[in-house]
Amino acid sequence: MSKVQEKQAAIAMRRAGCSIKEIATKLNVSKGSVSTWCQEITLTKQQSALLKQKQVTAGSAGRQKGADMNRQKKLDAIAEAVQAARKQIKIITKRELFFLGLGLYWGEGVKSVGSGAALVNSDPALLVLGKSWFETCLQVDPTDFRPYIYISQTHVDRQDVIQKFWMKTLQLPRAQFKIIILQDRPKKHYTNHRTYFGVVSLRVQKGTTLKYKIQALITACAEADYVD
Asked: For residue 192, what is the DSSP state?
């Protein structure tokens, strides 16, 4: 196609309401050339409105594409980190579990005066690890656990489901659990209503002395010297 033909085609497309970019792409010419050829053509209000809408739509599509790409990059980075972590940590020795549990209790354990030993959290994996630590490293008998499940009023209709979830997760019988309904919490429904299972306080029966022992071990760790 000659330059004259390109110019004529560009003018015809512009009069039809095409954007400068669309014309340049279609004719494989520069946007500067198209702009020069079509500078005297005035679009109708309807054509201008349509082009503006196309730009908005294209912008939204571009932003969505960018968001999808960033989300995928994040997922790939997480998957890569998980794979590397699994290669690095294949097994945990009893001694490693001992210190892991102390760190866990330091952050999530009950420390108030007059309370027994307990781990408080809503993460099932954390509580399973904590239970294993109590049993393996501190010789707590499974029959001595007394988990309290705290749920808001919005979950009252699900308390049996919630209790069964924690019974299965912690491998403990129903008789050892107690459900506490938090009466003063707002009756608001969240999108994760059916996948939320409350907060569990994994208590040890008559565990005040055990708590003192744990606190002493944590203090000893804090005071200990570090070596390479």
From this structure: T
Give residue 51's pLDDT: 87
The average confidence (pLDDT) of the chain is 91
pLDDT band for position 186 (cuts 50, 70, 90): low
Q: Is 108 exposed, middle or buried (0-12, 13-18, 19+ CB in 10 A)?
A: middle
Residue for token pair 């349509």: 50
Q: What is the pLDDT of residue 224?
A: 92
CA–CA distances in Å: residue 168 to residues 85, 158, 161, 174, 184: 27, 16, 11, 10, 29
Residues 153 and 157: their CA atoms lie apart, in Å, by 8
Looking at per-residue pLDDT, the higher value among 85 and 67 belongs to 85
Secondary structure E strands in 70-185? 118-121, 145-152, 178-182
Rounded to whole angstroms, the Cα distance separating 92 from 95 reads: 8
Burial class (CB in 10 A: 0-12, 13-18, 19+), 10: buried
Q: How far apart are CA 56 and CA 69, in angstroms?
A: 20
Q: Which amino acid is at 190?
A: Y
pLDDT, one tens digit per residue, over 64-80 is 888 888 989 999 999 99
Spacing of C-alpha 221 from chain mean position: 31
User: Residue 114 region, left (φ>0) first, then alpha (ψ -120 to 50), else beta?
Assistant: left
Q: What region, left, alpha or beta, does residue 175 occupy, with left being phi > 0 and alpha being psi -120 to 50 degrees?
A: alpha
